[in-house]
Design goal:
Elements: H1 8-17, H2 22-28, H3 38-44, E1 49-52, E2 61-66, E3 69-75, H4 78-84, H5 100-103, E4 119-123, E5 134-136, E6 152-154, E7 161-163, E8 183-187, E9 190-193
Antiparallel strand pairs: 1-9, 2-3, 3-4, 5-6, 6-7, 8-9
This protein binds FE2/S2 (inorganic) cluster.
Length: 199
């Protein structure tokens, strides 16, 4: 749900960056690089980040930092997975055909935009002006969203909406789906963000 304990890091992103975007936060880390331990330096420079998702329950999200960007890992419920198939006509790029090299690795060019149907991995930065969208996982009518909302993300800056696969809805300011970063599974419950089998 939108306010799980695991979501604290995302809240920090929002507090730190506001609407100027999580991208801006990346630059603030640079002056401190020389004072970091070697492993921290490697991480800041873009080393892959390993994440244990064994505790992630359906409907929950965890945020990790990779290359100064917030990366969201969402475990979708069976209902959220099923809803993806019904939204195609409402989406700007349902098959993730736009800028595939930058936005969607080959293994995520599917309806769920993911390796496993229930686990979404996306960069939490809006493709419009770089705000960090907020979770709106609960289905149904609610402020700023259509009555038939099936769950997803809302960018409060200019109202772009994304489904539970990070696919942007039609006629919104955001031109593209959320970016799926390179990633792979190193075990059933451990993900490596920033590296895939092509690396
Ligand atoms: S930055 Fe997301 S809609 Fe403008």
């Amino acid at each position: 749900m939108s306010d799980t304990p695991m979501d604290a890091s995302k809240r920090n992103w929002l507090l730190a960056s506001g609407c100027v975007g999580a991208v801006g936060a990346a630059f603030t880390a640079v002056p401190f690089v020389s004072s970091m331990q070697p492993s921290e330096r490697a991480k800041a420079a873009g080393a892959p980040v390993e994440v244990d998702i064994s505790a992630l329950k359906p409907g929950e999200k965890v945020t990790v930092e990779w290359r100064g960007k917030p990366v969201w890992i969402v475990k979708r419920t069976p209902e959220q997975v099923a809803a993806l198939a019904k939204l195609e006509g409402e989406l700007a790029d349902p098959q993730s055909k736009r800028n595939p090299a930058e936005l969607t690795p080959e293994y995520a060019r599917n309806q769920a935009r993911s390796i496993k149907p229930d686990v979404l991995v996306v960069v939490g930065i809006c493709s419009h002006l770089g705000c960090s969208p907020v979770d709106r996982f609960r289905a149904g009518a609610q402020p700023s969203l259509p009555d038939d909302w099936a769950g997803g993300f809302l960018c409060p800056c200019h109202g772009s909406t994304f489904d539970m696969a990070g696919r942007v809805f039609k006629n919104k300011p955001a031109p593209d789906n959320l970016e799926v970063p390179p990633h792979k599974y190193i075990s059933d419950t451990r993900l490596l963000i920033g590296e895939d089998n092509k690396a």
